[in-house]
Design goal:
By secondary structure, the protein is an alpha/beta fold. The protein has eleven helices and 13 strands. The protein is 40% helix and 20% strand.
């Protein structure tokens, strides 16, 4: 009887497609995680190879949850790039993804259930709004501090994506003619705070003779990139260069988020992303402090929280795509 009831409950899949990893979850109607699986994102090939890895990750998660993918009520996907009708265009950080790829249709055929695709940052923001650190608010800004810096917006209880390009907080200019950004422009928040830009900067400074243990730690931990964990270790060891670069990032985030607040005046800021979640509350506090001097309505600053759903937030958010708002 009990198992029949469990089977009758709709079960959903969620996949977070990131530049370095693919995270899949299976969740029940009450958002409990029944199974999860993670695979590295392919570094070569093209969109079809990425879709194949996503299918495997979802199948692994379903296996852990003891359910067949075809029995799922649906699978949601959070993807970088521009999303229109389940098609994904120019997804940065993914191999060979310059053109349009029908991701929803491809996965739907492979998994035998409905698939919906949304923007990765927006679905993670929705997850925090509906289930995480943003539950108490009607309007908020989710800031995801990782390889790049992205944001999702909830205004009066609804997602806001503009004409499709809203939330690019990483490309708010904090210094005219400033540091070169990975987007090709200058002085963007991401040029100072994106993990990708910070790694390039750290390497240049080391080549110029500055001492840092960042790259030594990277090798010791068998990483090919300066991951959030490597930055955290370097900070714990009081590595001078790492501390300086993180302080510079916090300053840029503070100025960028405060500028967004001066325009939007929403109730809360939720800090997520690889670095945001890893560095956690003490750094969210530092970002709030760095916002202070730039806030126009400084007598009532917004609430600043760390994303509560952590690493699984993106995949859980994706699983919400096919569910009506409660
Ligand atoms: Zn930029």
């Amino acid at each position: 009887m009990l198992s029949a009831m469990i089977l009758a409950m709709p079960t959903f899949g969620g996949i977070d497609l990131g530049g370095t990893k693919i995270q899949a979850v299976i969740a029940d109607d009450e958002h409990n995680t029944l199974g999860s699986a993670r695979r590295p994102t392919p570094t070569g090939g093209g969109p079809a190879d990425v879709a194949r890895e996503m299918e495997i990750a979802l199948r692994d998660a379903a296996k852990a949850a003891e359910i067949e993918p075809s029995e799922l009520a649906g699978v949601g996907v959070g993807s970088p790039g521009t999303i229109e009708h389940g098609e994904v265009t120019s997804a940065r950080n993914l191999p060979g993804w310059e053109g349009v790829f029908p991701l929803a249709a491809t996965l739907q055929a492979a998994l035998g259930c409905r698939v919906a695709v949304g923007n990765d940052v927006q679905v993670a923001t929705d997850a925090e709004f509906r289930l995480g650190a943003g539950r108490a608010y009607e309007s908020l800004l989710g800031v995801f501090w990782g390889t790049g810096v992205g944001a999702g917006l909830i205004l009066d209880g609804k997602s806001w994506s503009g004409l499709g390009g809203a939330g690019e907080i990483g490309h708010i200019v904090v210094e005219i003619d400033g540091a070169r950004c990975t987007c090709g422009r200058r002085g963007c928040v991401e040029a100072y705070a994106g993990r990708g830009a910070m790694e390039i900067h750290a390497r240049k400074l080391q080549e110029k003779g500055r001492h840092t243990d960042l790259f030594k730690l990277m090798k010791e931990h068998e990483r090919t990139r300066l991951t959030s964990g490597i930055w955290e270790r370097a900070l714990d060891q009081e590595d001078k260069l790492a501390t300086e670069l993180i302080e510079r990032a916090v300053g840029a985030l503070g100025a960028g988020i405060a500028s967004a607040m001066n325009l939007l005046d929403v109730e809360a800021v939720i800090i997520g992303g690889g670095l945001g979640v890893r560095l956690g509350h003490p750094y969210a506090k530092r970002i709030a402090k760095a916002m202070g001097p730039h806030l126009f309505a400084d007598e009532r600053p917004p609430h600043v929280h760390v994303a509560a759903l952590g690493d699984l937030g993106g995949a859980i958010g994706a699983s919400l795509l096919l569910r009506p708002v409660a």
